[in-house]
Design brief:
There is one protein chain. The protein has 342 residues and is of the alpha/beta class. The protein is built from twelve helices and twelve strands. The strands form three sheets. Strands 1-4-5-6-8-10-11-12 form an eight-stranded parallel beta barrel, surrounded by four helices. A two-stranded antiparallel ribbon has the order 2-3.
Amino acid sequence: MSAWKFSVNSGFFGRRRDRFTEYQPDRTLEEKFLLVKKIEGIQGIELKYPADLKDLSLAKRLLEESGLACSAVNVDIKDAAHFRHGALSAQKKEARDRAIDLLREGMDMAAELRAGLITTCPLADGYDYPFQVDHSTAWVRFIESVRAASSHRNDVRLALEFQPHEPHAHIMLSNVGMALFVCSEVGLPNLGINLDIGHSFAARESPAESAALLATKGKLFYVHTNDNTGEGGDWDMISGTVHFWHWLEFLHTLDRIGYSGWLGGDVASKHFGPTEAFETNTRMIQRMERLLERVGNDRIAALVRSEGNVARTYDDLSKSLFETEPGETGNPVRDHGSEKLR
């Protein structure tokens, strides 16, 4: 199996709420760690800043005691109390400076926690109506702010996360193309992208294509794993439950481009507990990976390179998924060591 490392986003282990109700109780950092430690296959935790890191020494102690690594520091720059009219692109210098300071502080925290990476989703930077913002100057401010934050220190990477909608009808950093544009304009090697799979679906993208594009520029720094209906909302569903075949293609692509970083679970548990949600999310990814191994990534790559071979590709994939070999019993994905495809 690939050398991917699995982590969880601590934000999903505390209070979660939308416009209608609350789904989880508020929990202390200690309580969050106790829940995460119960999840099989998890090696790291993505900590929120500032919420989780008000006491840095406590976070360090909990990481050491749990044996978990800090996969990333997730910096929140969407607080409406300060960023109602934008953060990195805001007209008011005070708002921009606060957003930059938060990112710089997050980078310092990441260095202290040996994460080497921060991620942020700039959701405060967007608009709802025509004539609401001056796009030319807003983008100049956005890029200048990202450059100011990224240049704070070169031993910590900054991964921007794109999303097309919510809380604004239009988010500035809305798709992989805009993300690559910002990386190019800023021009710093420690600036890259956190590819959230659900956000990629919401942007009507193929996550496999987005990952390949980011990899060509060396900008795929981190991955958030989840699924989405693709209708624009950000539902943070369990990976592979909606876009199963796209997820298989994405994992195949990660293997082909040699990605060996973190797969950070980013799953909302509205109807069940977070431990069950993240455990199933991890298992789904591992089982999809085993299915690909059963067919053979080299074999899939050869089929893809052969034009007009889509039917054969799906025949091979579906055979491995739904059929057992002579003499086999049970789930064909479970025993994948010595079987040969017919």
